[in-house]
Amino acid sequence: MNKKIMPAVSLEGVCFSRDGREVLKDITWSVGQGECAAIVGANGAGKSTLLALIAGYIWAQEGSVQVLGETFGEIEIARLRERIGVIAPSRLPEIPPWMTVAEIVASGFFGTIILPPRESVSRKRWKSVYGMLRTAGLEERAQELFGELSTGEKMRTLLARAMIARHDLLLLDEPTAGLDLHARVAVIKTLESLHQREKRPAIIMVTHHLEDLPQTIQKILLLKNGSIYAQGDAEAALTSKNLSAVFDCKVEVARRSGHYYTIVSAEEWVL
Predict the structure, then answer these.
(1) Which domain holds residue 132?
(2) pLDDT in tens, 9-29
(3) Is-contact 226 24, C-beta < 8 A?
């Protein structure tokens, strides 16, 4: 008998408008605890808005939002955010550039980006920090200043910190945006390592590149113009027909070694 997976996120009839324009329309979707999911769509589809709504940065005007068993509007959101990690390239400037990579990862133990005195971190915890850095491929950069890292290394540092913090929900907004191919692959591998842990968080990532999806992806939500076009498990949702409709161009979807790829027809290129 399969054990029922409790929802980490449950949305029912969610609507959101900004400046008189409907950004999200009747969104009903759920992600179970420990599951890895992605919100996929073209630019302007409402992906980042939906992620911000799940994080509690904005509020739905209609519908119900439940996160980690708590209903928005009935709880103190600041307390719930302690259980949620949000990682996005746009938030990198918030991280102190003078802290070392190891210090930033260790700060995950304390729920704040500013690390208490070094002696307050036990030897056992430092051992865990370096183990996480090894997993993220950053062990040799442990004593480097955060401000001296590449964007890809910064993202991997924050993913390692998320492993230490043991969030119950991890939200990733375009985590590979602006990265070169090598850095993108490194970030994706770090994400896969995070989701392979025995005690893993629910993960929801936003992307418009199927190539950025980790092999561990389980659920997909396809958005088009603020509405759900399709949803379900990755194999069922990520079809050539669905992607062509969502991106308004002819797209072929291929899968190899657990990863998804898109091929845009040459007829769709505009010179």
Answers:
(1) 91-166
(2) 999 999 999 988 899 999 999
(3) yes
